Amino acid sequence: MPERKKTGFFQNNSQLLIPLVAIGLLLIFNLIRDSSFFSVNIGTNNDGYPVLQGNLISILNGASELAILAMGMTLVTAASGGQDISVGCLAAIAGSVFVKVLRAGPITGWTVALGVVLCCLVAMVFGCFNGTLVSVFKIQPMIATLILFTCGRSIAYWINGGATPTVGSPIITAIGSFIPGIPVPTPILIVILVGIILSIVFRTTTLRLYIQSVGINQGAAKLNGINPLKIKLLAFILLGACCSVSGVIGVSRLSLINHETLLLNIEMDAILAVAIGGNSLGGGKFNMAGSILGAYTIQALTITLYAMKVPSTDVKAYKAIVIILLVILGSPVVKDAFRRLRMRSNSGRTSIGKEAA
Amino acid sequence: MGEILLTMRGICKSFPGVKALNNVDFTLRAGEIHALMGENGAGKSTLIKVLTGVYPKDTGEISVEGQPIAIHSPQDAQKNGIATVYQEITLCPNLTVAENMFIGRNENLVVDWGKMVKRSDELLKNLGIPARPKQQLGSCSIAVQQMVAIARAVDMNCKVLILDEPTSSLDDKEVEMLFSLMRDLKSRGVGIIFVTHFLEQVYAVSDRITVLRNGELVGEYVVEELPQVELVAKMMGKELEGLSDLDKNRGKSSAAGESLYEAENLSSSEAKPFDFQIAKGEVNGFTGLLGSGRSESVRAIFAADKVTGGKVRMKGKQLNINTPYQAMKAGIGYLPEDRKRDGIIADLSVRENIILALQVMKGFFHPMSKAQMSGFADEYIRALEIKTASQDTPVGSLSGGNQQKVILARWLLTHPEYLILDEPTRGIDVGTKTEIQRLVLKLAEEGMSITFISSEIEEMLRTCSRLIVMRDRKIVGELKGEELTQSNVMRTIAGGGKENA
Ligand SMILES: Nc1ncnc2c1ncn2[C@@H]1O[C@H](COP(=O)(O)OP(=O)(O)OP(=O)(O)O)[C@@H](O)[C@H]1O
Ligand SMILES: [Mg+2]
User: Fold this and answer.
1) Interface test with A, best of B73, B323, B332, B347 (most A CBs within 10 A)
2) What is the predicted ipTM?
């Protein structure tokens, strides 16, 4: 039997089929529609540095915040069997804290680092708040996070007090678009960094095993010495950290924060990314790579629709149609039907074989 | 005995990596009780699930009363008069008893709650099931839940009744109750398929026996013509080694060393205060009727329920054990009674299930390497002869008995100083059962202290050197040495015998 590759990230690869096929179809569709869709070229930006340009790059770049949130959402979903709908608002809060720190004085590398650390800590505290409601008070995750969903953007506003405070600085531009001399957009690099950090966490701790155990059978996990409360709390705190990273990217892209529109409605996309990745929204086993692919699928879809000049008012409707298809294809009913079909054709073959013998 | 009611011909069923059924025939006649026998993983439950439409069959034919029928779902089976009680309880713990008995059976959508409660009350009384219709099912013991599942099946005017290990969590009295119910149904012409690992029960009620081994049909026999020894040989494909040497061993294990664990006035949210101690290398047991508090007591020792008071000493040192983790760190292992609810992590692989407790003890920042996990898993899959396609198979797809072995492996792997086994042999076949008893005595000889709970008194008499008898959530007596006889235990349980509480 061939040894199946099993690292922290790539587990149970069959469930990656649907997002992979979806992305593949989207790209092929685009290729037929416009043969230049795939072209990636090296241009120069305003400062005269070489940068990668093209639709593929903008898909990868644009999905960065979503991909990072999807990773955190995967952990929360797996551990608690529910979803956090406050991620967009939490990212806005984190972004506001970041901006607040930066506006306190001249922007240097140190203040940016301080801002990132502080906003990460604040977001983790809010994550801890959500996690406490879910684990200690046993409130349904969607309901628990509804609180922050409702008031999060107001909190973000209070932190800075202004409408759209700006934070212009070459360092911020470097985070939001390109580091001078490196042609790959920085957000893509940040996604890779977050991915690497998470996979290191999976390798050096038992987090994956614990989260899955708690998500599948909390009672049994408890009798094996795992503390389900702590694990759920940890998942929410990690998601908080992911929110802060997304918030920082979002702020840096525009060099300002609009607390009303920063990563608006991204929570739904993050949940969808988890689902499209073949993960059960009821918790338990999870596949991180699936969720990340799910995030890119959603972004590819959006970019395709825009490239087709679909009016932005209609984009959501088209997106919904494709997503319904993807989700139904990944549903247990359809999977089961496919399995039965395969089995029937197999058994048909063997019984014929028997008669011949 | 009546005409042929049900025939299954040439049934084949494969799962990825396993041929669970290979060309199996089965015939059931009206008004007979037909035992389906075989070792763990022989394919009994699979045969039943094929019959009831839970799994599609690969090939084969099923006919009821001579008519070939196609069964694609459990609803189809019900329509054809086939009622089933599955091995793992499949009711909804958060609904009431009455709802569980009637839900999904109403043709019309409007439910008459009053009538439903009244009807279920009648049924419960008739069958002597100690539960109230409006009680939440989850609050009943497993035995009662099992009885409710049977009551539900019985009430559906069925032609064929299937009972997959219905008695594994019932005590003698309840088993007798179930048997009289079965005989009653039989006299009304119902054909009953009965799966169990208790040989005496097979000989007490069945008319015919069909034996499976490794997914193949061994044969169909009339009970009178198949002595017990031969039945076992047919199931295992070899003779069963005697148990006589077990009894000799017991003397040794009772020569116990210094005290290992002591509890004083230990109480939990579920258990009343009690005193308890076990010596190094001792095997003792809690016995009593179901609901007598024996499981609750051992759960308190492991802090599986919230500990509310009491003093605990391990090797003379006072300890605080308030969480299972602390208990594990103190060297205690606990195999729970309800493997589905408290034991297995169904979607995780056999490997992950085996190493789980050890991994937790090693700590969050010390994950085992893949090679280490595989090594441990392999070792125990071999040692306990766990039947599984591979280490990567999700444990939920193993046969009931093999799931039990996985959990046993999990705790043996942690090498505890004190191991609590609550019904470790539930759903385990005869051959393996004696293996496990042997293992318990061997471990004790090597210095492990073991508390053993079983619904089968003989099993406890064979392994334990001291029995603590419980009734109504209190310890009412203790038996050791010469006093350990079946009649003594029964008398103490019933409250007539020697009491020193
Ligand atoms: N859903 C499933 N997926 C994969 N394999 C399965 C599945 N169900 C059963 N099997 C395999 O089929 C074989 C027969 O299992 P089955 O449950 O029928 O055994 P059994 O005779 O009922 O055993 P037990 O006495 O332990 O309950 C086992 O090897 C088991 O691992
Ligand atoms: Mg079975």
Assistant:
1) B347
2) 0.87
